[in-house]
Amino acid sequence: MLYVCLGLMLLVVLLLLYLIFLRKAISETITQMKEIEQQPENNRQLKAITADTHFQKLLAGINKIYQTSQEERIIYQHKETKIRKDIENISHDLRTPLTSVLGYLELMEDSNTEEERQEFLGIIRKRARLLQSFIQDFYEMSIAEGDNYPILLENVEVQSMLKDSMVAYFHEFEKRHLGVSIELAEDSSVFIIADRIQFCRILNNLIQNVLKYAKERFILKQYVSQGFCVIQFINDRSNITEEDLQVIFERFYTVDQSRSNQSTGLGLTITKLLVEKMMGQIEARFEGEFFIIELRWKV
Questions:
Q1: Residue 104 pLDDT > 90, yes or no?
Q2: In the chain, fewer beta carbons within 10 Å around the N or the C end?
């Protein structure tokens, strides 16, 4: 009987010691949790001060929750930073031509000759049209990102549209003194499934991109390979870098970080959205001294 009592007493003491140690572990865990909540940017995790398997599993579960929360916080901060940058870019793009319009309006008021007023009026008209094009880009971007963007798919003959687009920019190529080369597949009856109007817009956006950044050469290639119609817009590499290449389709991105080239940086973003909405593919890459934007469509 004595041994039984001693055994029970020993068991009670062990249980009390375990409870004391467990209470200490819980108290330490609560302290750690408060520190984590006060400084979430440190991405800390709870550390167990006991070898108890169940307690360690509990902390592992809590740490997973913390990790998920930290990842969501980082994503939120990244999005918030991106939104701020987008707003900054929009403000800059709209403010620049608007400031110019207001400035020339004041000059018109102080002008003494009709010739000066007409000159200022012409500049105001150009700036107003630029402002209108910026607003149109912002609008197109907002609806292109949605699910209800109107896409009317039909059979589109590729080479005829390529030729029409190139002819439309003939005088622009001449002004820029660009050496233009057009290399089309021998089979001219290549059709893809696309929206004719939006496909035309894609071609125009990519040609305009060439006109902005090409220095001396522009090569337009079209051929069929492995069941795909491939269209390549090739120009000399100019000042485009590897870093530019990684983000070239992102919203509001321009190679000219000062944003002085009268571009919203939305042209390639809208182009990529339209291509993907019509089940096409688009990529940008370097090949030696050349910068290439390539379209691929199933035929």
A1: no
A2: N
